Amino acid sequence: MTATRFDNPVFRFAPSPNGLLHLGHALSALLNHDMSKDAGGDFLLRIEDIDLTRCTPEFEQAIYRDLAWLGLGWKEPVRRQSEHFPAYHAALARLSDMGLVYPAFLTRGEVKAKVAAHEADGGKWPRDPDGSPLYPQDDRHRSQAERETLIARGTRHAFRLDMGKALEVIGRPLHWTETGDGERGEIAADPAAWGDVILSRSDAPSSYHLSVTVDDAAQGVTHVVRGLDLFEATSVHRLLQELLGLPQPIYHHHRLVTGSDGRKLSKSEGSTGLAALRNQGLTPADIRRLVGL
After folding, report:
1. What is the C-alpha to C-alpha distance for residues 272 and 251, in angstroms, rounded to an integer?
2. pLDDT value for 1
3. Of 167-176, 200-209, 282-291, where does mean pLDDT reach its minimum?
4. pLDDT at position 272, please?
5. Which residues sit opposite 43 in a β-bridge?
6. Bond from prior residue into 77 cis (ω within 30 degrees of 0)
7. What long-range pairs does 201-207 form, CB within 8 A, spacing at least 24?
8. Residues 126, 192: contact at Cβ < 8 Å?
9. What is the pLDDT of residue 165?
10. Count of C-beta atoms within a 10 Å radius of residue 274
11. % of the chain residues with pLDDT over 70
12. Which residues contact 150 (CB under 8 A, 6 or more apart)?
């Protein structure tokens, strides 16, 4: 768990307060805390509450209780995404000024129908590393006049990154340094595999991709330690870092804690929740043992 030495190593744990923390969160939090201590650096806590419909103050307070019970302390102040919407708007505006953003009007139902029709005819619709269909190109090729008409009508829309144009702007291969539990070393980034990723939507001022990239730079994070389920998404984050002129952290994607079915734990599985385990009489040392530390 020894980290590369920096003048001021900074690690962060960034949960979303849309449910209770479970053993998977405990592994990530403990790794970030322990690695920051080994490196003589700082351990930060970030509350990723950009989804205002699902995140609640009650779940946020539960995060503080669970982490304190584990014996973790963090450097104040805690960064809460809901307090930094202007920073995400500024990043989106910068990308827009570069001609890399377009309004996307297709609903999920319309996208699903397009994919189903295409595959019913024997075609194979391209999918991202998570298995989701790539967004159709209809909106990318709309005229400016058509876009303005739709917006003036009040048509709900998101904003997406024109991946092709973004890659042309960079004009060179991208990589990241990986020290985690899977592939290690210099990893070739492949942002094109994700298609025209969403940057902002009508019900949220920023996407995960955009906000996490802006936040890590704003907090001076030098080491991003998170689950292997986000390994592939790092390609998008590297692209956004280059486009926005932001520093590149070292990445460490750790193994996932899985349930009896072999799947990654979810917040709906109460039996693995830290609060439930604490109420059963387990200790922080027991939690470390359960997550393999």
Report:
1. 26
2. 40
3. 200-209
4. 80
5. 11
6. yes
7. 201/158, 201/159, 202/156, 202/157, 202/158, 203/53, 204/50, 204/51, 204/52, 205/50, 205/85, 205/88, 205/89, 206/50, 206/81, 206/85, 206/88, 206/89, 206/91, 206/92
8. no
9. 98
10. 24
11. 96
12. 103, 105, 142, 157
pLDDT greater than 50 at residue 197:
yes
Interval 207-227 mean pLDDT: 97
Contact 49, 16 (CB under 8 A): yes
This model's pTM is above 0.85: yes
In this prediction, residue 3 carries a pLDDT of: 42
Q: List Cα–Cα distances, 74 to 14, 18, 41, 99, in angstroms.
A: 12, 21, 11, 39
Angle at the Cα of 169 (from 217 to 226), degrees rounded to 5? 35
Residue 102 and residue 144: Cα distance in Å, rounded? Answer: 9
Candidate from 29-38, 127-136, 223-232, 254-263 with smallest mean pLDDT? 254-263
